[in-house]
Amino acid sequence: MKNHNLEFECTGLEHGGRFPVENTGRGEDISPEFVIKNLSAHAVTLMITLEDLSHPIKDFTHWVIWNIPAADKIGKAIPAGRTIPSLQGAVQGIGYGFHRYAGPKPPKGKKHQYRFTVYALDCRLDLKASSFKRKVLRKARTHIIQQGSICGYFE
Q1: In whole angstroms, what separates CA 79 from the centre of its chain?
Q2: How confident is the model over 27-63, as pLDDT tens digits?
Q3: How many domains does the chain have?
Q4: Are 112 and 74 in contact (CB under 8 A)?
Q5: What CATH number does the domain containing 99 carry?
């Protein structure tokens, strides 16, 4: 049951393709919609990270959100905030956006690679919103039953 590949679509972003402007810091800077294809019946919550793979700081975190109720779809434009009432108290931790989605915005003239990773967990995580990605992943490690990634670029 552990670590089976999670298949998902990120609306407007093909794997290896260019980020839609609306999902970047040069556009509306809103999170995209996620459509989960093969979610395990054992999944209780979902967690999402967005990382800049080209940043000088290895896998620089743009966004980390956890305790999203397990579902086949996560709507776009998740609002800013430590906890998200519309997602049954999902928690946004510390990333580039400080408790919110912060889309790609590399320096002008530079092309950066980004990666969304969606994790399916068998529980809720009891962590404060002041947590960074590293702490969240450490706490989640033994509870991840599926994960998958989509990469894209923006310049």
Answers
A1: 14
A2: 999 999 999 999 999 999 999 999 999 998 888 999 9
A3: 1
A4: no
A5: 3.90.280.10
Q: Is residue 125 part of a domain?
A: yes
Phi first, then psi, for residue 133 (nearest 5°) are -50, -45
Give the DSSP H/E element, type plus range, for residue 133. helix 133-140
Q: What are phi and psi of 30, to 5 degrees?
A: -110, 150
Residue with tokens 């108290």: 89
Residue 151: partners with Cβ closer than 8 Å, 6 or more residues away: 15, 16, 53, 113, 114, 115, 116
Give dist(CA 108, CA 7) in Å, integer.
32
d(Cα 9, Cα 149) in Å, to the nearest integer? 9
